[in-house]
């Protein structure tokens, strides 16, 4: 959140020069506040687990947020009851005339398929096209990040020789970005995927910028220069035991799965894993909500997507 200080305080210029958001008394007095409307497009099969993980991150801020849950109509979910979907989820046709301050698009276990071969790709493409005029800022996660950066900017994904699976160390390569404000120079984050995007492809596109990378896991954070689109190629929302559940599930299926890297103490799956990424995960969601949604979205939602709606670096 911004700090509110007197209009003429000498510290104002210094703090603004350090890229710290300062709100003067005048701006604070004239500020209108309303709840943020955030749309969560949940593509994960374990919908209840995923919605809980993400809502936990969204709820741990001072901001009031109204969440709407969205499912794809062109894909039948098999791991959640129809009653849950009917009660809590909506479809694109039901919300396409609405506008939202923010949207989150989750990952999905379809990364080995070409994008166009995913059974709900056409519907997802419609939603991503719609977001340009009806959503102020969109956060894409894991496969959702690969799909989003491919759809909006043509960045391809590449199949890996083996699954990137575990908790990896990352480096902030653009520390001036408000997205990573408060981050340590290096931090941990979980990954679980068979494909990746390349940093060189992102750096070659003038409309994109690289924010954080890992020597082992590759690109972690990127965004559009207009701050409309954010891409997180890992799973910061994961609970401490999520990778363990994925590992045990795949082993039970008879798959030859290596242990998640840097995850179990002493690489011993009999020992309970510990979350070493929770603080930075919370900062990531909080920074996105604060600097790129709350601070820049129009007070009048009808102006989202219009010329009066402008996101900021």
Task: Kindly describe this structure.
This protein has 2 domains: 1-26, no CATH class; 32-239 and 278-309, Class I glutamine amidotransferase (GATase) domain (Rossmann fold), CATH 3.40.50. The model has no long low-confidence stretch (mean pLDDT 89). It contains 10 helices and 12 strands. By secondary structure, the chain is α/β, with parallel strands linked by helices. Helix 3 (47-59) links the parallel strand 3 and strand 4 (65-70). It is globular and about 60 Å long. The two termini are 16 Å apart. 30% of the residues lie in helices and 25% in strands. The strands form 2 sheets. A 10-stranded mixed beta sheet has the order 5-4-3-6-7-12-11-10-8-9, sandwiched between helices. The longest helix has 17 residues, at 278-294. It is found in: Cytoplasm. Its EC number is 2.3.1.31.
Please give a handful of descriptors for the protein shown.
alpha/beta, single chain, ten-stranded mixed beta sheet, two-stranded parallel sheet, 313 residues, Rossmann fold, 10 helices, 30% helix, globular
Give a short account of the largest sheet. Answer: 10 strands, mixed
CATH superfamily of the largest domain: Class I glutamine amidotransferase (GATase) domain
Tally of alpha and pi helices: 10
- Taking all Cα atoms into account, the compactness measure Rg is 20 Å
Distance between the termini: 16 Å
Mean pLDDT: 89
In CATH terms, what is the fold-level topology of the largest domain?
Answer: Rossmann fold
The structural class is alpha/beta
Lateral strand order in the biggest sheet: 5-4-3-6-7-12-11-10-8-9
Using the 3D structure, state the CATH architecture of the largest domain.
3-Layer(aba) Sandwich
Count of β-strands: 12
